[in-house]
Amino acid sequence: MQYYLDKFVKVFFYRGTLINTDIINVLMFVATIIILTNLNGIFNLIFGVSAPFSPLILPCVLLPTFFFMVTGVKFHILCTMYVVSLLCYLIMSGISLIGHIQEHDPELLEDNTYLKNTRLYLVSILTVFSFYVYTRYKIKKNQLLPFIEFCTILFLATTALTPLAEVLGLNDVYEFGIVTDTYDRKTGAFKNPNSAGSHANLTLVFVLFMLTITKGWKSVLYLVLVPIPVIASIATYSKASLIMSVLVFFIFIFFVLFRKVIALNVKSNINRITRITMIVMIAAVVYAPFYLISKFEELSHPQQQRIMQTIRLVSGEINEETTSHRSRVYAEGIYLIKKHPLIGFGFAGLHRLPVAGFGVHNSYLAMIGEAGIFVGILFLIWLLLSLYYAVFNRYPFQLKFFCFGVLCVLFIQVYFPTAAGFGDRVGTLVLGIIFGILSFKRDVYEKVD
Q: What is the pTM of this model?
């Protein structure tokens, strides 16, 4: 048996490095396209076919994971803690489900919510791990930047659909999902504006990173492309998206201005386009309020309401109106947490609350409420440790901005307003990339400057 295993390994590997890279590259290429372009959502909206490409994602991430596992994988603490935390969540919430299933909404069982969520989180673990090991492989081959650039192009192509769908004549095709919306909010290739907004802000981070890391005409091109994710974010009129876009701007400006301190004395040169971008961003932040006031009357009433609610929310006014009824839902979630603080309410229990009838719209509350406070603490440690590595690793400031910016979008915009944020496919893909980057030391990235 060992003879055949060794022979199999030699076909694909040599001294721990892939020889037949075509297989791995094609599989990860397919998985990246399906996830970042949200092909499932597009086909569902156009043809009414639910998740036609989902069966492809599992083998595309499973086989590379197996191949890299055979040759030996260096497990980094961030990736390990994420996988362990999510597995602890599944185990603890599953145990709690046995004792509290009578308190759950009966529809959870009828529409296979338990099975769907289990599959979602298991695939998420595989996705994170596969892109973690694949990113490490790309870094060893000095191919990290081409890979991130490929992801950036996919991000841009999908995000551009949000503001351009109507221009492209997709009104009739997306009558109920993309263009026509009772709140005058566009969603592009996604089922809801919140997902479209988080995708737009991840795109913004990727584009700004490529702008700072490239030179010449490419840097100019990415500067020209910056407005696409910004306009897409605004078009969703998602409060979380609008706030996050401004926050990404401030993070970028801060990292550029204080790059020498942030990089911990690592050489951190910037190109001329980065300086221009920073100046334009500062001007945009200053000018935006005046422009909004001048154009406010041209917006529809629902759009005006969303803008005013966002301003009031940022000002500290938290109520059902400014949080789109989330404050009431959070209150019910916190009540359930207090009711079962140690082992939780049970798997998927907060994905459909007994009183509200829908999810708690907060991944952190869902995690604690379904699996207990100890699992929540484990996730909190992972979150803080991820931010620590992103800030205090001795990397060029461009990589620090990229890692910190992506993590902020995930932790604030993806995880905070949705119940199943830890199962978000785009989020798990980019999280795997970040884990791969943070698993190496400074000297690997000296050529990035």
A: 0.89
